[in-house]
């Protein structure tokens, strides 16, 4: 069957309010003056993945719940301006939103508004099946209600990836995503033994590839049973914010994977895109494009 979409992105659409703070954690105080301003922009995990995929030339379609509110308008505008098709399911509770506190060294603390969703939220199953049938691959965010779409995606036969973000390896919420995906991304930040966690994901689930990113320490890559270490890549400019770096890594990895590259090459693409994302101010939603990524990868080849 011919496909109209390279990657169907499920979930992770929303708006962040970005506050640049003097340090993290913040010392105890009643108030702080924010001299750089407080900025609100569209861009949460699914948005960042979709924007990076599109910047790399992949045909991308995004599906999520959105409210009829100013935050939803920002998300719609982001996708419209980037030429990314977006299917919005009405969400009476409102569009997902968060507050990101960003330190001068790029570290962040994210505060998510969990009131903008309900345990009974669902994507229409027929719609998920229809979009999956037209797609080469599906990237599933761990936001509600994506877990309920996994059976339909698995039944469709489309390959699946997911990003578990800062999973500790034990929280049961993440396990359905970890075990259903063919490619699993996660941060090593809260893992006591990243390599053991990767082997557990592959041993108990479907994953042939699992990657634990470790910031300046690079990444752990498990592919077809072999564990290797992927070195970090120096950012092309000063680091200003780590927000979206993991999403950029995942999207660029998928770009390589869907293009037939070997896993280690895919991980290099991911590292380059993630490093670029760290140089983008948190007030913007930007991504490295295909030509720049391939040029930087060629330079790494020496």
Account of the protein in words:
The relative contact order is 0.14. Helix 1 packs parallel to helix 2 (70-82), helix 1 (45-55) crosses helix 7 and helix 7 runs antiparallel to helix 8. The chain has 302 residues and is of the alpha/beta class. The longest helix is centred in the last third of the chain and has 15 residues, at 263-277. The chain is built from 9 helices and 13 strands. A 9-stranded mixed β-sheet has the order 5-4-1-8-9-10-11-12-13, sandwiched between helices. The model has no long low-confidence stretch (mean pLDDT 93).
Largest sheet: 9 strands, mixed
Order of helices and strands: EEEHEHEEEHEHEHEHEEEHHH
What is the overall pLDDT average? Answer: 93
Classify the beta-strand content into a percent band: 15-25%
- Count of alpha/pi helices: 9
Helix content: 25-40%
Uncertain stretches: none
The shape is globular
Radius of gyration equals 18 Å
Structural class, judged by helices and strands? alpha/beta
Strand order of the largest sheet: 5-4-1-8-9-10-11-12-13
Spatial gap, N to C terminus: 40 Å
Count of extended strands: 13
């Amino acid at each position: 069957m011919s496909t109209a979409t390279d990657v169907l992105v499920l979930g992770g659409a929303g708006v962040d309010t970005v506050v640049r703070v003097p340090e993290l954690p913040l010392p105890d105080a009643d108030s702080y003056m924010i001299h750089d301003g407080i900025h609100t922009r569209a861009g949460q995990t699914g948005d960042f993945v979709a924007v990076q995929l599109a910047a790399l030339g992949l045909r991308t379609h995004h599906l999520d719940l959105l409210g009829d509110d100013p935050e939803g308008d920002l998300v719609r505008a982001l996708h419209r301006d980037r030429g990314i098709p977006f299917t919005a399911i009405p969400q009476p509770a409102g569009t997902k939103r968060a507050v990101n506190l960003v330190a001068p060294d790029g570290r962040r603390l994210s505060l998510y508004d969990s009131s903008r969703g309900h345990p009974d939220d669902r994507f229409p199953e027929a719609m998920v099946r229809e979009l999956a049938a037209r797609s080469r691959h599906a990237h599933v965010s761990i936001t509600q209600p994506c877990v309920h779409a996994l059976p339909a995606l698995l039944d469709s036969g489309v390959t699946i990836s997911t990003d578990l973000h800062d999973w500790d390896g034990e929280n049961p919420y993440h396990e359905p995503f970890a075990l259903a995906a063919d490619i699993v991304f996660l941060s090593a930040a809260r893992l006591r033994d990243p390599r053991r966690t990767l082997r557990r994901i592959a041993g108990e689930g479907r994953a042939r590839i699992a990657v634990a990113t470790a910031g300046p320490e690079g990444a752990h890559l498990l592919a077809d049973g072999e564990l290797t270490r992927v070195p970090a890549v120096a950012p092309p400019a000063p680091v200003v914010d780590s927000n979206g770096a993991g999403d950029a890594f995942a999207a660029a990895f998928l770009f390589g994977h869907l293009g037939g590259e070997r896993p280690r090459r895919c991980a290099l693409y991911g590292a380059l895109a993630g490093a670029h994302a760290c140089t983008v101010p948190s007030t913007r939603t930007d991504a490295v494009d295909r030509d720049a990524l391939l040029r930087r990868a060629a330079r790494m080849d020496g």
